[in-house]
Amino acid sequence: MNSQPAITAAALIADPTRAAMLLMLVDGRAHPAGELAYCAGVSAQTASFHLAKLLAGGLLSIESEGRHRYYRLAGPRVVSLLEHLASVGPSEPMRRRAPNRAVERLRFARCCYDHLAGSLGVGITKAMLSHGYLAEGDGKAYIVPPDGNEWFGHLGLDVDRITPGRHGIACQCLDWTEREHHLAGPLGTHFLGRACDLGWFRRPPSTRAVDVTPKGWQALKAHLGLERPNIGVKPDFG
Predict the structure, then answer these.
(1) Of 173, 181, 128, 174, whose CA–CA distance to 155 is shortest?
(2) Within 13 Å of residue 83, how many CA atoms lie on the same side as its CB?
(3) What is the chain's Cα-based Rg?
(4) How far is the CA of 63 from the CAs of 7, 31, 72, 146, in angstroms?
(5) Number of neighbours of residue 147 by Cβ within 10 angstroms
(6) pLDDT tens per residue, range 175-192
(7) Prediction pTM value
(8) Pairing between strand 31-32 and 115-117?
């Protein structure tokens, strides 16, 4: 940054409402305007006004997922700037809504259209990436390397016979609770269906929540190294 843009950025950050929203975004995740408004203690209309200024000032970027728009910091230099400023003076805790059991259950694992979402969906996607079963492609696409073809084949999924969608065989979908990406596209759909067929997951008819069976936790540990977290929600297996 040269001096003029830096001064402009500092002026934008100096506003308490904008500062509160920016600090919420330091965690690296994307957040919708309503959540940023709640954090800053302002109305949706006021939040939109401030977010527009931050976008125009180059401090934020925006990502659209269907009808939803999510905001995140524009880059690591913005993160570094905010972290340095936040280290000066006292900090105030962010306001949070108290979650209930149903919300926590959906946040942990749920269906997003026809693929797996929630913290479990994000965790499984990260594990697939780290094991080399998925790789990031162009744009929002995922590609399936040879190791991935073999692994999915062991699960009973023939990747070569899955018909690609408009974003290819697999793509990123921004998770509305985790603000990170999970696996979507035809491969995401087939993976969720196959995991249910294998008895790893169960989909109760009256909710979008997805339950992981004991067999499922054993399989996720063996295949992806995922441990069952202590989330305070006991799955209802009926």
Answers:
(1) 128
(2) 10
(3) 20
(4) 26, 10, 8, 31
(5) 13
(6) 877 878 999 999 999 999
(7) 0.64
(8) unpaired
